[in-house]
Design a protein that fits this description.
The chain has 13 helices and seven strands. By secondary structure, it is mostly helical.
């Protein structure tokens, strides 16, 4: 009986240790913070009707009806940062990794960045053709559409026309020079009725996928970025802030922290704060609740996939007993 009890106790302790290794405190804090922010932002959008349905082609291209700065897609934080979020996240990672003390400059961290980058590309850009998110829009009833100026006097500001989905795979503008067959097709030319005042030879049209389930790419990318950067900050924070070192962690020798790494850590922390804030504004002003939820779930799933090859790596490492900044 006692032997069975001992085995059960040992199994319970092993399970607890495994859970802590997969979800140490910094991961739980990052995950719960993003989930809470999305919940609050989405709840606010439902109560005050502030969210724009981006899957509607007639609405998505128009300015947000809310005049708030962060409701406008042209706000500088969206155009300069969020639109290039993985680039900024990658820059922050390399700033951290390249300036890290040798003791924490693990090649596995670089491999995890490569895995996360590959997942980002698979979801958003390419998966043996269109990315997974574009495929999901198509499979859920989405269409590739273009918007043309309407006939003068028409009550509708745009003429929305469906075109073959292959044109949306271009991920850019189509013109008579790039797609002469399309612009010489009589059936397509007839659709340009409202645009006859424009020189067809100078037209630039960008096809987009609409009307299907449009997973929030911003929520996906920002969730993945926050969780990934939280992991990258975890080895460095106890070096800058000794009070954050777990009391149960084995203590190693003192490690010198260079000024460059100090700056990289603080800059990355600021970037994480910006990502969390932009997650909130996206939750308030854009997408349906389900699209935001799936964006979050895909972000978490993508992040967890980057952990699989390294799940056997112990979460707790030796930390310095007296970290100090490098003297100039």
């Amino acid at each position: 009986m006692s032997s069975t009890s001992s085995r059960s106790s040992a199994s319970s302790r092993a399970s607890s240790t495994s859970s802590r290794a997969l979800f140490p405190l910094h991961r739980l804090i990052a995950l719960s913070s993003v989930a809470f922010i999305i919940f609050v932002g989405t709840s606010y959008s439902l109560i005050h009707d502030t969210s724009l349905d981006t899957s509607d082609p007639l609405l998505a291209s128009l300015p947000h009806p809310n005049s708030a700065y962060f409701a406008q897609k042209t706000n500088v934080f969206n155009t300069l940062f969020v639109k290039k979020a993985w680039g900024w996240t990658s820059a922050a990672f390399f700033a951290l990794w390249l300036t890290s003390p040798q003791e924490i400059q693990s090649s596995k961290r670089l491999a995890r960045w490569a895995a996360a980058t590959a997942l980002w590309a698979v979801f958003t850009t390419w998966f043996f053709g269109p990315g997974l998110f574009d495929r999901l829009i198509t499979y859920s009833g989405g269409e590739c559409v273009i918007q043309l100026p309407s006939t003068p006097g028409s009550p509708n500001p745009f003429n929305v026309v469906s075109v073959p989905s292959k044109f949306c795979a271009v991920k850019g503008y189509i013109t008579p020079d790039t797609h002469p067959d399309l612009f010489s097709d009589p059936s397509f030319v007839s659709l340009l009725g409202g645009a006859q005042s424009l020189a067809v030879s100078s037209m630039r049209i960008r096809p987009r996928l609409y009307r299907g389930h449009d997973v929030s790419g911003h929520i996906f990318l920002l969730t993945l970025s926050v969780l990934f950067l939280a992991d990258q900050l975890a080895p460095s924070l106890p070096l800058l802030f000794p009070a954050l070192a777990p009391s149960s962690t084995a203590r190693g020798p003192s490690i010198r922290i260079g000024a460059a790494h100090d700056f990289a850590v603080r800059a990355t922390m600021a970037l994480v704060v910006l990502w969390v804030w932009m997650t909130f504004t996206t939750s308030v002003y854009f997408h349906t609740p389900l699209e935001k939820l799936t964006g979050f779930l895909f972000g978490v799933a993508g992040y967890l996939l980057t952990l699989i090859p390294f799940s056997s790596t112990p979460a707790a490492r030796a930390v310095p007993s007296a970290p100090r900044a490098e003297e100039k």
